[in-house]
Amino acid sequence: MGRGKLRIYLGAAPGVGKTYAMLSEAHRRIERGTDCVVAFVEHHDRPRTEVMLHGLEQIPRKELNHRGAVFTEMDVDAVLDRAPAVALVDELAHTNIPGSRNTKRWQDVEELLAAGIDVVSTVNIQHLESLGDVVESITGVRQRETVPDEVVRRADQIELVDMSPQALRRRMAHGNIYKSDKVDAALSNYFRPGNLTALRELALLWVADRVDEYLNEYRRRHRVSTIWGSRERIVVGLTGGPEGRTLIRRAARLAEKGAGGEVLAVYISRSDGLTSASPKELAVQRTLAEDLGGTFHHVVGDDIPAALLDFARGVNATQIVLGSSRRKAWQYVFGPGVGATVARESGPDLDVHIVTHEEVAKGRGLPVTRGARLGRTRIIAGWLVGIVGPAVLAVLLNTVDLGLANDMLLFLTLTVAAALLGGLFPALASAAFGSLLLNYFYTPPLHRLTIADPKNIVAIVIFVGVAVSVASVVDLAARRTHQAARLRAESEILSFLAGSVLRGETGLQEILERVRETFGMESAALLERTSEVDPWTCAGSVGPGTAVVRPEDADVDVPVGDHMALALSGRVLPASDRRVLAAFAAQAAVVLDRQRLQQEAEQARALAEGNRIRTALLAAVSHDLRTPLAGIKASVTSLRSDDVEWSEEDRAELLAAIEEGADRLDHLVGNLLDMSRLQTGTVTPLIRSIDLDEVVPMALGGVPEDSVELDIPESLPMVAVDAGLLERTVANLVENAVKYSPLGTPVLVAASALADRVEVRVVDRGPGVPDEAKDRIFAPFQRYGDAPRGAGVGLGLAVARGFAEAMGGTLNAEDTPGGGLTMVLSLRGVGSPQGPARVAEPERQTT
């Protein structure tokens, strides 16, 4: 049985109709006779969605007990046993209740797909992992329930469920999304028009990128070489000269004029080394392109216009931006130039923009090497000069008598010209042909291949020797220059490789993509195996044709050690390219090892942290928890004893000791449970607008009377907090302050408004804390100074900071003027002119 197919309904926000669309699709499939069941769907008390569940078979959910409450989750085993053709699974990014089969619901879906069951699911754009920071900057809410982008990208079909912000707000106002008591807060905060418009744009752009991937894959699979102008994609041709910055900015402005425009800056280095660019200037242009939202590419090509056009057609570009030539007027005798050639050969579907700049006609500015590998045109010219030239010269010299010496110098000039143009063999042919013509036409006896005067024999021999020597020197210089240029091109590529590592581009996918681009291959893959007899596995791959499972199946393979190889598909590379390719392969292997070491280090760090916490817990249990237990045990034993007749005062004192020990136990256990919730990420605050004077006084119940002074002005704005978490936070801060304050000196709890924040300050006059220890006191199981063992397990401040950050606030320690410590709790204000606080979106609210 093959793998099932995944279909996802993607929306910009809750309430756009994803679940409704999914259920409608289920009814259509059932009408066609498809076996379709509801594995898990939440209707959130929305009548129209609940009606759509009628007539659909629903798999019973699995009940789980968690902290005294009963929750329901999808029963994966029941769905697998039922084995339907299609299963509906709502809320793909949902986090399962602890004790479930998998941590995340998308992992449950992966099991269903692996079993051959097709799955239809829903997800909101804000739950994509890569967009977490962007969504938080827009809405002010950090999404804790996320799904990896790759899970959604692998879906066989993604359908966007779209709705305008105005229509969505009308649905909200009519009570079709949330209950009436939540409508006003939602419309004023998360569902503001600006937020919804930004989220909608994110969803549209993400789906557009996905469609673009489908299009490129289709074009590669069907070998479509013509350009489809589905979106503006602008290629900037760079030479490494200073005009590149102007071209990149111009291309960025062109891209801004069209929706979804994309800029791709490309530098093409010739393998024959005819041009050389400054690595520093290229680094600046790369940074500029990336800052403007574009990408930078470096490829190798002998024919720069052809390589540029191949790259543009390969990425389905619609426009090419080039700079006006820096060559002077007389340099055009050597050819029309790159810009004119690209414009002539671009075709009707690819527009070419020639942009003027300050460097026009000021010279190339780049060193030109004239003795590089000889091209076909120069070789043909060399043969023409070497063969046709002597014949034409002989005809001309027959009309005038210049003497044998001058005739030999003229023929030698043609031989040198043939060597300069065509290299060794045209020069040798010119020397041989010229010597025959000299002997036949100009040495007595004339018109015969014999020489009467021995001096003429010496002259012709010298002529041939000089011609051969000049031709050899010129050819050797050309080959040496080509080798130097080749090495320069290789060093340039290696410098880019080293620069990518220094810039932090250490991902395996980035390294493989750089290999594929540099050598113009279709795909690149890093294969590995554990032994000589084990099959090869793919550690990473890029490109469309990544189905290579063995190095021998690839066009090019480079071994890396005994059990790893870099495999490339597309064309066979010359042996000279393997030196650079070996460096890429070694770098890819190092990157893979580094990634695995980082993963192992993270796991080791997590284990070490867990061991530290367990050790601290054992220490706490061994002493801090046993001390109140021992006091309770002793008091209860004394009260039950028949040997002593206790007075009412003694009995009351023993009962008070029992109550005090129980309170200490309750406080210690509460802090331990709170710290456990914070470290497992299960603290989900219910944010609402409250007044501080409603909560702060309730937090003072656990401290002695007259030990705290309150200063909470009634004019303070409301704060967006969870009332229960705020009460626990203030209670821990006050208890810690009272513990270290001198007797008879009350702790001050004051509040004030600062911009769009409200600060609560807990001020004591105790010994204070040095600056270097102010952050350390918030770590779990930390006691400052020589606090006695009975003072607690050191969790109060850690829990307080954790709760504060969970509510979107901050907690820091400052020195109290005149001595002591001040805890500053900063909370988000509601209704302040600088910007209202945002009410958190319920994380499981999904349509």
Automatic annotation (TrEMBL):
It comes from the Bacteria. The keyword Transmembrane applies. InterPro entries: HATPase_C_sf, HATPase_dom, His_kinase_dom, HisK_dim/P_dom, HisK_dim/P_sf, Histidine_kinase_KdpD, KdpD_sf, KdpD_TM. SMART domains: HATPase_c, HisKA. It is an enzyme of class 2 (transferase). Keywords: ATP-binding, Kinase, Membrane, Nucleotide-binding, Phosphoprotein, Transferase, Transmembrane, Transmembrane helix, Two-component regulatory system. This is histidine kinase. The lineage of its organism: Bacteria, Bacillati, Actinomycetota, Actinomycetes, Kitasatosporales.
